[in-house]
Amino acid sequence: MDTAEGRTTLASTAGDQGGRRVPVERQESPVRADPGPRAGAEAAGRAGRLLAGRRALVTGAARGIGRAVASRFVAEGATVAGVDRQAADVAGVHMLEYDLADIGGLGRLVGRAEAAIGPLDVLVNVAGIFKPCDALQLSLDLYRLTLAVNLDAPVLLAVACASGMVARGYGRIVNVTSIHAQFSEAQSLAYDISKAGLAGCTRTLAVELSRHGVLVNAIAPGFVRTDMSIVDGVDELQSDSFRGIYQEHGKLPLGRAAEPQEIASLAAWLASEDNTYVTGQSIAADGGLSVTF
């Protein structure tokens, strides 16, 4: 469930990208006074957009939740650099190809992003991987790979980006974790550890960076309609167990998986100037799933 993902099985439960459609009430972004000395037509064009004038780096931006976040940020007025290991064309997004498992080059990646779009105000860590494996069969290579992409890269990117944010006195960091950060299932040892670690990182960075105007939060998705819901060629959202346990028997109160855009809308608010007082939190965007455990 999760993250640029959308894996959830807990039962079954699980960004790299986590139904029956239920009407979702949507609210338009409120019109706000544009902060700072902006005036005239430029200010008028930005009014009401949550991320007007901000520069954001989004990982996992080629697909799923990451793509939805990058696209939503562009719509909200941000200049966006997207990172993914696969080439992609995302409208309005400056895409950078990079494998986040290569943690030694993350500082240079931030430098490339800032050279392309300018100093970063926002970081959204979405990219993640999930490879099911019995605990007794878990290899060191798979364990290290999962932690490199899901934990090491987000932590090191956050530290690298936070340096400039602190110097400028403003920043927002959003980590897409998973309800796996709190609830576990079989064959998810490395994944669960990585997501729990990223939740811990979120809390600690929030404590250290808040005095500098940098707010840090996490979004913990449950089931999300993305590629990650497909395991070994089977879409868990179409399985008998999902329909029986989660929909027919009410284990998932909203009765459907989230769409990536629903996670993106929450990320946009957390990353915006409208968020002035929420930091250090892991917000479960899971359709009520976790309250039934």
The multimeric state of the shown protein is single chain
How many distinct beta strands? 9
Largest sheet: 7 strands, parallel
What fold name stands as the CATH topology?
A: Rossmann fold
Structural class: alpha/beta
Q: What overall geometry do the principal axes of the alpha carbons give?
A: globular
CATH superfamily: NAD(P)-binding Rossmann-like Domain
At the first level of CATH, the class is: Alpha Beta
Structure, described:
By secondary structure, this protein is α/β, with parallel strands linked by helices. It has one domain (50-292): Rossmann fold (3-Layer(aba) Sandwich), CATH 3.40.50. Helices cover 34% and strands 14% of the residues. The protein contains 7 helices and 9 strands. It has a 7-stranded parallel β-sheet, sandwiched between helices. Strand 7 (230-231) and strand 8 (234-235) form a beta hairpin. The longest helix is centred in the middle third of the chain and has 29 residues, at 140-168. It is globular and about 50 Å long. The two termini are 15 Å apart. The relative contact order is 0.20. Mean pLDDT is 87; it is low at 8-47.
Chart the SSEs and their pairings.
Blueprint: H1 40-46, E1 55-59, H2 64-75, E2 79-84, E3 93-97, H3 106-117, E4 122-125, H4 140-168, E5 171-176, H5 189-209, E6 214-221, E7 230-231, E8 234-235, H6 240-248, H7 260-270, E9 282-285
Parallel strand pairs: 1-2, 1-4, 2-3, 4-5, 5-6, 6-9
Antiparallel strand pairs: 7-8
Keywords:
7 helices; alpha/beta; 293 residues; two-stranded antiparallel sheet; Rossmann fold; globular; single chain; seven-stranded parallel sheet
